[in-house]
Design a protein that fits this description.
Elements lengths: L1 H15 L3 H13 L5 H13 L3 H14 L4 H13 L3 H14 L4 H14 L4 H15 L3 H14 L1 H15 L8
Helix pairs in contact: 1-2, 1-3, 2-3, 3-4, 3-5, 4-5, 5-6, 6-7, 7-8, 7-9, 8-9, 9-10
Length: 179
């Protein structure tokens, strides 16, 4: 276990140095160990995807799910991977599997709600229920803010578009941030 954690830490260090190739090499070493953890697989898959190797990332996720099928983070991360690659129905399956293992994770409620929104406007009420649950669980933290933003998109699409445009202008330095 210590050797595996050492390779994981090295992998994360190389990511901080923007050296994804070395990070991937370290995480491959971690996953080759018999004591490899779901974290090793999850990080490896994420970094492969970032490097534009989605097929390799998907394969790593599948291997990880075969050997570590009780890790909520792994299910959540694979769901996010699938969502990024427009496999929304499949993403929901993995978010729900993660939710079974960690029913009080507000981010899962945000992921599920936003995925329902991405699927279709006809899912707005279903999305609303999950987003409101995220707000209820999280109360003012980052997940609650993300949920509120998605709820704004449901309740006031025009206000949401104005909010997004204003936020983009602030980020681009076209408007001064309020003090």
């Amino acid at each position: 276990p210590e050797e595996c954690k050492a390779y994981e830490r090295l992998g994360m260090y190389y990511v901080l140095c923007s050296d994804y190739q070395k990070a991937i090499a370290m995480l491959h070493k971690a996953t080759d160990l018999k004591s490899s953890s779901p974290t090793s697989y999850r990080l490896l898959a994420m970094y492969l995807d970032i490097q534009g190797k989605p097929d390799e990332a998907d394969e790593v996720f599948r291997i990880a799910l075969d050997c570590c099928n009780d890790d909520a983070d792994l299910f959540e991360e694979y769901g996010l991977y699938l969502k990024r690659h427009d496999q929304l129905e499949r993403a929901l399956e993995f978010f729900f599997q993660s939710l079974e293992l960690r029913p009080r994770n507000p981010w899962l409620f945000v992921h599920i709600g936003s995925t329902y929104l991405d699927l279709s406007e006809s899912n707005a009420e279903r999305a609303r229920a999950y987003l409101q649950e995220a707000e209820r669980i999280d109360r003012g933290d980052q997940a609650a803010k993300a949920a509120a933003r998605c709820l704004m998109q449901i309740d006031s699409p025009t206000d949401f578009q104005n909010f997004e445009a204003t936020y983009d202008m602030i980020e681009q330095g076209q408007l001064r941030k309020a003090r």
